[in-house]
């Protein structure tokens, strides 16, 4: 798609009824101002349960989003900090344990798969915050869930990107939701519905809605299940891949790693509970610049977001778009446009720092989308990424493994952007300068 945009400009007609759009003002029009309805491709992900992500009906989506939004408010998220912190503590313990094991056999460095580690962290974070208990991924190293999750996402991507196949499977009545995940979910919800005391987490907001007697605040039990499963799909791999992509970029460019470490060492850190404060991470300019730059270069939805014109309209004051046209909002192409971001191929966190010239076009930066269907988990994801990256850099030294660095260049797009090998290993040791 990028090559087509390079050749034909910000609007590319890829078939009689499908346009790809990468102009920043048009992206805003499609996603925010005109707020076009989600396209039919989203129906293809609704094999199991309808949820906030795949609902295309505006009223149904508005209701669900309104009921769930309090779980993602900044204030409520602040209350989830102890849960996230316990996951980060597990991560540190795990890495230290691996290093101790390596040291016992005479090696100061442990070989650790950072792709898997961040995935385990994201799954345990989702477990703690949305399922009421950790999956124990970091500690035990395995749980049937991540394997099935990855398989599910990859299988789903075939249907997500192939509308005809999706419709065929739907018509045939084949159930795409993995029964293991469904049963797991049913148990979790049952436990919480019958629990005596509430637990302060994301799931609690959904459970309260399931129990609510006011129809305007209600969610059916079926919806609670659909939404909770959605958090697992939407919240784990997206966040873990992004955190891992940031670590890979920092290992590729050591001076940026050192610059980040310098900043991380100045941040408020509580030695007793071994954690950074939310405020200090939120205001860490270089850390947030590294995250922004990673999301610019490696946006999880790099294939574009599908929207549909429900009536004729004029796009960007120049294109007459007939009703029924599908529009792909292609943020990746916008992120790679040199008019918006200078030297767009380069990993340059500095562009996000105050005073950098030419300033990045923040209105062309859409990693979490925008408008009524933007990412509800944005703040959660950002905080988790900040914690993971800052903690690893504060506590450990890293050495690269050439073969892994090479493998990390093979990046593919399923539903999210991922490393084809599903693995990124590095040598990790205790920090020598502490
Ligand atoms: C780096 C991490 C993440 C990125 C880059 C990301 C990005 C996105 C994007 C681009 C969308 C719009 C998708 C579309 O229109 O098709 C989206 C939607 C969504 N995301 Fe995220 N996301 C991340 C993490 C999370 C987390 C942690 C959660 C939940 C805990 C989450 C939950 C959702 C949900 C529920 C939607 C659908 C919202 C709606 O349609 O109303 N995401 N995300």
TrEMBL record:
Keywords: Heme, Iron, Metal-binding, Monooxygenase, Oxidoreductase. InterPro entries: Cyt_P450, Cyt_P450_CS, Cyt_P450_E_grp-I, Cyt_P450_sf, Cytochrome_P450_monoxygenase. Signal peptide: none annotated. PROSITE patterns: CYTOCHROME_P450. Its cofactor is heme. GO terms for molecular function: heme binding; iron ion binding; monooxygenase activity; oxidoreductase activity, acting on paired donors, with incorporation or reduction of molecular oxygen. Heme binds at residue 375. Belongs to the cytochrome P450 family. This is Cytochrome P450.
